[in-house]
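Entry 14. Structure prediction run on the chain below.
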Amino acid sequence: MSEPLFDRLAIIGTGLIGSSIARAARAQGAVRTIVATSHSAKTRKRIKELGIADEVADTNAEAVKGADLVIVCVPVGVCGDVAKEIGPHLRPGATVTDVGSVKGSIVRDMGPHLPKTVNFVPAHPVAGTEHSGPDAGFAELFRVAGAS
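Output returned:
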């Protein structure tokens, strides 16, 4: 890939799925800058140690500032709270998506808190393992079938 698809990727929640997305985005050259965050200071410290992201933000609101792609990788039950926190800080034209396993509650809980100036794309990666946390992530979890 010659030009990255996105300038700034914000990953909120950097467990297995979030850290795998970050690793895959970096490996595939899909983004220029990756900023990640986690509610846990211990996990934020580990993200820095592993070098998963270019920047590690202390808050969700800080993470999304200037991002053109935001991927919410937190448990479904807190997605609404995350959307409420990040909504006022989202860049117009940004794409916001999630990795939750259900969509009805995601749309209901996140949608009202996201400004009309962003593109909200509820999604599911249909990927995972029995492991969790930033150490469990790996880029190949999101390898495109048939890609070399």
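The first helix runs from residue 16 to 27.
Filed with the rest of this week's runs.
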